[in-house]
Each structure stands twice: as structure tokens, then as C-alpha cells.
Amino acid sequence: MIASKPPRGYAIPNGVNAAIVLLQLAGFAVAVFLAARLTIWWHVVLLALAFGLYMNSVYSIIHEAEHGILLSNRRLNDAVGMLMALLFPAPFHLIRQGHIGHHLRNRSDDEAFDLYFDGEHVVWKHLQLYGILTGMYYLVVVLSNLVVLVVPYVMNRKHFAFDRPSAAFMASLNPGRIRIIQYEGLAAILLHAAVIWLLHIPLWHYLAMYASFGFMWSAMQYVHHYGTERHVTRGARNLWIFAPLDRLWLNHNWHQTHHEHPTIPWPFLPAVGRTENPRRGFLPWAYLRMWRGPRHTHEHVENKYAGRIVD
Fold it and tell me: Which of 36, 189, 195, 213 could form a disulfide with 201 if both were Cys (CB 3.0 to 4.6 A apart)?
């Protein structure tokens, strides 16, 4: 779950993944080039929509790197993950710790955004879930680039006693990674400032592009888990939206299959999923159901990995 070689018969597609990375870098270059030159507002809107869809493919590549299954060479895997995370933009080692921690905490009381328990702040739980649904979660992740540089001491469990999921996330962070996370945060800020300045991109064009991506990315961060079984690996669902999009997003919607087999590379997920759990819901309907909001429960599921530091 943390980082290991794929099972026998599921080799990492090094060549394919490398080609995808190059295409995605080229796609980013084309997008910012167009953002600097478009003058008609609805052209910018179309670019923003396309950018949002494309950037979720970039995140899928980052996701493979987080699990150590993007490239067989681990150092190269992490280096490419760091590079692609700059486009997000977020510190790779921070979001990696967050994502691997998600696999450990999934559907426990430490990560159940669709539920609230006796004694919890009901309004806060609603704001948290609706923040995920509306893109605010993406904004929080992007702001981490600045937080790790200016006020890194904030990222401590004691400051988040009011919110169990946040406290659990902070407790799992590896303090030995803070320096590289700060370098990555600084690099992300400098990269995007340079792109905007050197290409003379109107700020609202750039913000429109990333708002589109941020909304799409954030909206999908819990759609595969809302209302699922309270189990660390089975607590997910496989979804579909549109075959070309599913492929563009590197089969990320085979999410239950991924949680049950987190070291199987993306090309193999559909075949495994169709064998083990072929049932798939329609992603937009799953998203709309989330607007019901969190519900009260007396069922408690402890995180058996509580206290584990993620490398």
C-alpha cells in the first residue's frame, strides 16, 4: 500500500508512462500559450474546461508516482512525480503523504467526511463536505505551498483538535520531509509566477483554467467513497463517466479495484475490476448524491493504522 513492486504479471508500463508524461508537459505548454493569446471570453471558457479535464489526467500520473508505480526506477519515479506535481501545483511529498495516509485511514472515524458523530461540530462537517464538492478543498491544497514556507509550524496535530480527519492527517506527516516539501512549495510558486509573467497571461485567464481543474479535481476526491462500506479497502466504489475520459484519467474511476490492489498499475485495473467487482455507478449521479450532506451515525470504526508515520 505504501510503496512496493507490482504483483507478478502486472509490470509497470515504463515506456507508455514516459510518453504520457511528455504529452502532458506538451499539453501544458499549449494551454498556457493559448491562455496568453485568447481574447474572446467564451474561448477562454472552452480552454478552461479542456484544461480541467486534461489536468485530471496529470493528477492520475502524479497518483501513480505517489504509489511508486509510475516508473520502475524509484528515484526517477519520485523525480517525475515532483515535476508533474508542480503543474498541480502542490508539493509532491506532501500530497503523497496525504494520499497514502488516505489509503490507511479510509472509512475509519479518522476519515469519514460523509458522517458525523456525537460531540462533533455539525456545521463544520457540512462545510467540510460541501467544500470538497465545490472546489474549496483544491484551494486548501494549493495554499499549502505558501503555508509550508511561511508558517510550517501550523501543520501540527495540536492545532486541529477540533477536526479529527485533519488531526489524523497532520499526525501522519513525516517531519523529516518538511525541508523537501518547502523546496517543492517554493518551486511551484516560482514556476507559476514565471509562466504568468513571461508569457504575459491575463490573470483571470490563468485563474479560470485552474478554477476549472480545481473544481473537477476536488469534486471527485470523495465521490468514490461517499456512503460506502466502513472498511479500509472495500470502502470505495468503481464508477464510469465516458470511455474516452475514463481512459484519459488512466482508469482512476476503477477506484475500489485500486484500493484493493494499490500497487497494480493503471492499465490493468479494468481487467481486474471486471473480474472481481464489475458493478460500476455513473460518476455524475454519485456526485449529485453527495449533496445530501453528511449523516449522523453511532457506528465507530477505529483506524488500525493510527499513529503510523507516512514516509
Answer: 36
